[in-house]
Every structure is written in structure tokens, then in C-alpha cells.
Amino acid sequence: MKLEEQVPRNALVWIIGTQFFLLLPHLSRIPWWVLVLYVATAVWRSMVYTGRWSFPGGYVKTSLTIVCFGGVALSYGTLIGLEPTVALLLIAYSLKLIELANQRDAYMVIFIAYFVCLTEFLFSQELLITLYMIVAVLLNTTSLVALHQPGQDRFTSSTIRRAGSMMLQALPLMILLFVVFPRIGPLWNVPLKSHAARSGMSDFMKPGDVANLSLSDEVAFRVQFEGEVPARRELYWRGLVLSKLDDGAWRSLRWRDVPGDQRRLAEPELVGDYSDYSIIMEPTQQNWLYALPYATTRDRGIIRSNDFRLVSPVEVQDQKRYQVRSWLEVPLEDDISDWRRGVDTSLPELQNPQTRELALQMLAEADGDPQRYANAVLEMFRDQAFFYTLRPPLLQGENPVDQFLFGTRRGFCEHYASAFTWLMRFAGIPARVVAGYQGGEINPVNGTVIVHQFDAHAWNEIWLQGQGWVRMDPTFAIAPARIEFGLEQALAEEGSFLAETPLSPLRYRNIGWVNNLRLQLDAINYRWQLFVISYDQDQRYQILNRLLGSVGQTQLVFLVAGAWALLLVPVIITMVWRNRGPRLDAATRLYLDFCRRLRRAGFERSGHEAPAAFAQRVAADRPAWAEELTAITRCYENLAYGGSSDPEALDELKRRVRTFRA
Amino acid sequence: MKGVLDNAALGSAREVPMKDLVDRAAAEVGKVLLGKENQVRLALCCLLARGHLLIEDLPGMGKTTLSHALASVLGLSYNRIQFTSDLLPADILGVSVFDQASNAFSFHPGPVFSQLLLADEINRTTPRTQSALLEAMGEGQVTVEGETRALPEPFFVIATQNPVHQSGTYPLPESQLDRFLMRLELGYPDPSAERQMFLREGSAPQPEALQACLSLEQLAAVRAAVDEVHASDNLLDYLQRLVAYTRNSAEFAYGLSPRGALALLQCARTWALMEGRSHVVPEDLQTVLPAVATHRLVPTSDYAGDASALVHDILLNVDVIAG
Q1: For A511-546, what is the HEC assignment?
Q2: How far is the C-alpha of A627 from the C-alpha of A113, rounded, in Å?
Q3: Which of A316, A388, A621, B260 could form a disulfide with A479 if both were Cys (CB 3.0 to 4.6 A apart)?
Q4: Crossing angle of helices A127-147/A512-528, nearest 10°?
């Protein structure tokens, strides 16, 4: 093999090291044996390098590939989907090591590595991951640089420094392209994350099936209000409306459940105060978006549903940013259709007879007034021995609501919301469960409201004549602290808040500096998401318009080229500066100054003329100057060629040149 | 090089006694070679810089006279070889002869075993014989019949040659030319010198009769002093610009080799010493450049003339002071 086709030792080590660095963040998603495979191929390749083993033959490679495919299929149960695909990519990336024979193969591995860097962002786009991947790109670029240092088998920091400087040089272009490059929609859709929505929200609710609700401290979304943040008790982020009771579980209505004439939203009249805010939502793989009632938006591609929610026609697979204006005082649907009333009052006839009895009795006590009846129910929850807990007993019988209301009396929001709905519907009042998030944490650093998964909540809306849908929160009746101060306060006695995630920084928020650090980090992350992750085509247009007024595509191209040229100016200046010729010493500068004075007197020193020869020529013409010419020339020769570094001699030359009058 | 300033006028940083010695030797040689002070000094410079000297000119210009005179004033033992087309290497190096009395071969050293070897008309002999001188000039030793013998110290070669376009010559190869530190051309004498020559015809001193001006110790001392001469950064910059010019210029087939550049510096140092200075100034380089560089540079084939005009161009085109 020719020397320039060989893979130098340091390049090989950089490549293998980069592979490990890239595998690391994927480890939680890929089968453990991929790591083993990587270690094996790395060892094999090192043995090949030292000359002890040879490259595996074609049969070995083919069978390894087949076995690995089989392994992925076994581990995931499928070969389709994001994670199996990434696992296959990583396997190919590792296996390529044992046929990395010449430079061409090394290029292949390095380019695959750049692609592997990209795949990490399919799972997470957090700031920390981004920083990690920048380091990964640096390592990979270092491999590329090392590949072009043939014969260099020693490790020098110059390799990584050169890679770093290359990346730094690319930075301005990267930023420029990030800002102005058109965001082209995906050419094909990748099936993202096979596991469905994480803990938090799902599109059905069956209280009684969950004995121990585990809390997740992941962020659901962040909100930036433009004005004042409303009181915490007003922050009911509606996500889903669950109207249909299906085998004991509350479900939302599907598109086909709604008759055609009911699908359109009855636009309410916009009156009263409103609140503007923007939300950056973490990916949920679901269609629904969260907002305060009554939410309107001008963002394209967001639909308002007939139950006053915001819905995205495509599943939210990336972080999504949207602008909302909420009219907090607008009554929702002051006239209700028969279909809607029918849906929201229907109940299975034979279930929960005790509850039915209770409902009818309490309705009679309230003289049939829905408002008074609802308040009476809330009072019942408040005054009687109902408890708020995340560890409720299971409700498995035929009549779970009876069991709850007259038996266990322990539960969390779902239990109360569900029971409340039963009680309302038995009394013929249209009622439904609303699922979403309640509250949120205000980050004092930047004023954003951080809504975590553990802020997930379920409450009710009942329809009252003249008022439309009115929010009712039975959980508030039982555990007002849950609403006023958040879940942590509500669970202070039970001690179950984030009991299963001991490492969550949220658990330690009563330690001042931990909490401060956590909030600072979140503020940074918010900015990151706001300005980088959620930067999309719309924002691009907005920013470009704000910066440049309205520009067409052609102008934009010129603009980019111009901006790039502008960025190159410092580079050019540096290059010119570096090539500006040798630095002149002080004596030579003085001597050249002397020559300029003589030139004004008509004696031009030609380039090839040595100082003494020049002095002689001038002296022959102007004998009067001979003495001074000789003195200056001797002084200069001693300084420039005599190796004298005497400061006095320099001073003398300076003095003589200054006083020389041609 | 014209325009060289009289150093007495400028004064020198350190008065070196070597200067008197060299001046006296030059004056002594000048007695037999009239009107060639510059060439005489350059020839002395070459020998003091431990180099071999090549003198090239037409017959009858005083080449041999100069060589003889130099040998005499330096007080060296010398041999002379007249190169002819049938000269063999053994004629130069020596030969082993069977001695019947001792019943063994005994080595009879050739003329090369001397302190100063005059190789007259070196390009009249065949390349084979020319190459016999190579090792002697390069290493100061000769190998005869498998045995390496050291030559006396010091060892100089002064070679003369006729211009190569004359008939019956074998041009010296570049490799051999490179072993000569300098190549000098004498040229016609100026009219006044020539007139003086006519006037003293018959009573002219013979080169052999010249007085030796330097002892071997003094010669060694001069040579040691050469190494002490300071070459400043400014000067080395100038030297590098000169060398780079020969390498980049389209007029030369190839530029000065590093050995050529070193030779230039060595000669400039010696010249500075001979001028009584303890440091090299650009004029020193300018003075020695034609003698040192001309025979090492080959003009590109589309240039018809001699390299000497081009070497003069080097000096005109390279700035003494950068910037």
C-alpha cells in the first residue's frame, strides 16, 4: 500500500476514541451488546495494527452482520423505528472498524461519525447534549486532521488544536447559515420514538387502576408571559377534554364521534382582559397543545377544536413553540347543543347506584339549582373525611365510584374529577373531565413559568345556563395547597413527592444554592430553546424582516455572500499582516528615514546599493556632507552588521539622523 | 565591485593585525602580476577561506604566474602538473613500484602530495584523470590501490583552465566545478599596467623569487580568525535574498546550492577580515559573489551568453536592505 493511503496510528486511535465518545450517550437506548461489539472490533483493529492478527475474511464479516441484524430484531422486536435504526447504524459504525484498511475506509468511518453525531439530536436537543456533540465533532475532525499527517505516529496537541481552529473558523459561517438558510421541510418522515408519550398525559383516564402514581420531574413546557403572570390558581393549562365514559375509563371524543354539524367551533365573543404568552413545548408524540382558556392563536398550523382547545394537526415530535392569547373572562359556549348535552350527561344506568342516590338527594336539597348543587358537592369533599394521596387503594369492583365515595375516600385528582363528573351527570348537569397541567414554577431568573410533568392535573367543567362551561376543581376542595402552592406542599405529610427520583434536583429545592443553580440552568435552557431549537422558518422570516426589511430570495443570496465576504475581511487582513515582509530593526528604520531625507535632496539610494557605497556616492557629489554621511553610515553598519546592540549607539544614530539636514 | 568604500575612511570596529599580513602578501604578488590587485586579493581570499581556486582565461594572461606567486608568498611546498590529454590518474596520485632490494612494493607518491598543487590546464585532460583530483580536493586524502593516504595540511589546489569553447578541452563537470570555492577570470591588463610590463621586460621578478609573507602558523591563525568574523541577521537576510533570487529567477536553470551559499558566506567573512573588519557588510558579499557564484550557476538554455552578466544582475535586483 502506498504511504499516503495508510492510516496513521494517531488517526486510528482518534477514530476509535471518537467512536466510544459517540456511543456513550446512546447507551441507554441501544442493547448492551453493541458496546461489547464495539470493544471487540476496537481490540481486533488494534491487533491488526500491531500485526498480530489479520483482517477478518468475508465469511466472518457477513455472518457478523447477519447476527447483528438478528440481534437488533430480537432486542427490539422489530427493525423498524427510530431506535432500532440508530442501533443498526451504530453497529455498522462499529463493524466498519474491522475493515478499516486504507484512507478511503477511514473517510467512510469519519463521515459516518458526523452522521452519528446528528442522530443524537433525534432524541434530545438540550444544551448539554449540544455541547457534548460539539466536543464529539471536534474529536471527529481531529481524526480527519490526523489522517492527513502521514508518518506522524506520535500524539501532538497540534492535531486537536488544528481541528479546533478549523471549527472556530467555520463558526461565523455556521451562525450565518443558521440565521439565513431556508428551513426546508422534511423530505420524508422518520418514525420517531417508538415508546409513546411519557408519564404525564395520556388520552384516557381510569382512576382506581393506579395504586402508586409516580411523579416525573421532566419539563412538560415552559411559558413566557408578556405581561404579568396570572395567579397560580388561575393557571389551568387545558390539554384534553374527556367526555366519554368507556368501560370505566374517561376518554376524549374522537373525530368520528362528533357529528358533522358539531365540528365547528362556536366562536365566543371576545371581551374582557386577555393575556399574551408563548409556550415552548417538549415533544409529546401527541396532537394536543396546552393553553389557558379561552385560547386563540395566530400561528399557522394550529387548529382550535370545538371544545376550545388548541390542536396541532401533526404530532408534536420536536420542541414546539407557539404564541397564544388567552381571554380569561370569556364564557365558553353559552348556548349548548342537544348533542353536546346528551354526550356530557350520559352515564351507564346501572353502575354506582349509591352515587346516584346521593346525587339525587343532594340535588333535591339544593332545590334543583345546579350551581348550589355543585357547591354542595365541593363542600361535601371539603368537610367530610376525604384525603389527597398519591398512594390510593385500588378500586376494582363493579361500582368504583361508590367504592370511592363511600369506602376508601382516598385518591388524587383523577379520583375526585371522576367522582365529581358522575355526581354531576346523575343530576343531569352536563359535566366533563379536563386533563392538563395546573400551576407551574416561576423561574425568578427570567420570569418563565416552568410546568413539570408532576404538575399534571385533572379537573372538571360543568355547563351552567348563562355562564357556559364553568371550571370546577374538586381537588382544590380537598387539598387547596395543591392548587395554591403546588404538589410538594400538598404532599408534605405523606412525603411522597418525587420519592422515587432521589437524584432529581427538584427534591433539593429547599437548599438555596441547589435551587438557584437549577433555576439558572433552566433559564439558560429556555433561552437555548427559544433562540436556537425553536428557530424555524417563521422566525427566520421575522428576524430577516426586522433586520433587513422585506427581502427577496435573490437579494438574500447576495446578502449572504456579502456578509460572508465581510466575515472574510479579518482573515484577509491577518494574511496580509503576516506576509507584510520582515520586521525591520530600529537601526534600519532610522537608516531608511535617513535615506528618505537624502532622497528629498535628490539622492536616491537604489535597492542594490550598500550603505557605504551610497555614502561614498553622495559624498563625492556633496563633499560638505562627507563627515556626517560617514558617521551615520558607520554608526548604522556597526548596529546592523557589527552585532552591536549598544543602546547608546542607537541613540547616537537617532540623534544624527534627526539633526541631519540635507 | 565598483563603489566599495575605502575602509580606512570609515574606520573599522577592531583593527586586526591579519590585515597587514594579507596586505603585504597581496603587494608581494602584485610585483609579478601588474594591475590585477582585485583578482590577487580574491585569490588570496579564496585560499584563506580554505578553498580551492580555479583560474580561467585565455593562454598567456598570467594564470600560471599568479599561481606560482601565490605559492611563493604563502610559503608552501608546491608541485605543478601540466594536464594533457594522455595524463593518467597514477601520474597525479602516485604508483607502487616493486623494489627488488626489499622484495616489496613501495609507494611512490605523486605530485598531489604537496601543500599546494598547481593543476595547469586542467580541462585538457580526460574526465577520468580529472576525477582523480575529486577525492583529494573534497576530503584532503587520496586512495591508491585500496589504501587511503592523508594529504599534507594545508592542501590547496589552484587549477587553471582555458575557456571551454577552445578546441581540445574537456569541460569540467558541475560536480567538480562545485569543489572550487572560486573561479576567477584575469582579463586583459589595463594600458598603464601593460606599459609598465613592457618597460621592465627582462628585469621582471620571477614568481619563485618572491618572499614568503606568511608562515604556516600565521596561515592557520588567519583561518581561525575567519570563523570569528560576525555575520549579523541583517546580513544573513541579505545573503538569503541573494540565494533565493538565484533559485527563483527564470534566468538560471537552477540556483545556488546550500553549499554554494555557505561558500559565499565563508568568502565574505574572509573578505571582511582582509578588509580589517570583524563583521561582514553587504559589500563583502557583493565583492565575492561573482567569483563564488558564476561557475556554480547555469543559465537557462535560451540564454546565449555567459553567466557572469547574469550574476551582475543578481546584485542589481536584490535589495540590500529589505523593506
Answers
A1: CHHHHHHHHHHHHHHHHHHHHHHCCCHHHHHHHHHH
A2: 75
A3: A388
A4: 60
Chain centroid to Cα A464, Å, comes to: 43
Lowest pLDDT segment from A484-498, B27-41, B206-220: A484-498
Residue A319 contacts B, CB cutoff 8 Å = no
Instruction: Give CA–CA dist B285/B231, Å, rounded.
Output: 11
What is the separation of C-alpha A614 from the centre of its chain, rounded to a whole number of angstroms? 72
Give A605's strand partners: none
For chain B, strand residue ranges (E) read 52-56, 78-82, 94-99, 104-109, 116-120, 141-144, 147-150, 156-161, 180-184, 252-254, 298-299
HSE toward the beta carbon, residue B144, CA cutoff 13 A: 24
* CB < 8 Å to B279, chain A: 637-638, 641-643
Is A635 designated active site?
no
The DSSP bridge pattern shows strands B180-184 and B52-56 to be parallel
Name which of A635, A641, A645, A653 to mutate to probe chain B: the one with the most chain B Cβ atoms within 10 A of its Cβ: A641
- Amino acid in position B88: L
* Contact assessment for residue B62 and residue B36, using Cβ atoms and an 8 Å cutoff: yes
Quick one: DSSP state of residue B279? B
pTM as predicted: 0.52
Give the Cα separation of A181 and A194 in Å (integer).
31
| CB of B282 less than 8 A from some CB of A | yes
* Alpha-carbon gap, residue A434 to A412, rounded angstroms: 14
- Indicate the residue of A582, A613, A643 with minimum beta-carbon distance to B5: A613
What is d(CA A332, CA A296) in angstroms, rounded to the nearest whole number? 13
| A525: Cβ contacts below 8 Å, ≥ 6 apart | A126, A127
Residue B174: closest CA among B289, B252, B95: B252
B298-299 and B252-254 beta bridge pairing = antiparallel
Is A338 annotated as catalytic? no
Q: pLDDT digit string (tens) for B111-124?
A: 888 888 888 888 88
DSSP code of residue A291? B
b/e string for A154-184 if b means 16 or more Cβ within 10 A?
Answer: eeeeebbebbeeeeeeeebeeebeeebeeee
What does R_g of chain B's alpha carbons equal in angstroms? 20
Q: Cα-Cα-Cα-Cα dihedral of B182, B186, B187, B191, to 10°?
A: 140
A413 catalytic per annotation: yes
Domains of chain B: 18-227 (3.40.50.300), 229-323 (1.10.8.80)
What three-state secondary structure class fits B202? coil
Looking at residue A23, its pLDDT comes to: 93
Peptide bond into A283 cis (omega under 30): no
State the ipTM, two decimals: 0.79
Amino acid at B137: M
Question: Does position A77 have pLDDT exceeding 80, yes or no?
Answer: yes
pLDDT in tens, B235-262: 998 999 999 999 988 888 888 899 999 9
What distance, in Å, lies between the first and last C-alpha atoms of chain B? 24
DSSP symbol at B153 = S
Query: In this complex, how many residue pairs, one in chain A and one in chain B, have their CB atoms less than 8 Å apart?
Result: 85
Please tell me which residue of chain B has the smallest CA distance to A617.
B3
CA dist B49 and B227 (Å) reads 9
CB-CB neighbors (< 8 A) of B281 in chain A:
610-612, 637, 641
Q: Which residues of A touch B286 (CB under 8 A)?
A: 608, 610
User: B37-48 and B18-30 are packed helices; what angle lies between their axes, rounded to 10 degrees?
Assistant: 130
Cross-chain Cβ contact B318/A609 below 8 Å? no
Out of A592, A607, A612, the one facing B281 most closely (by C-beta) is: A612
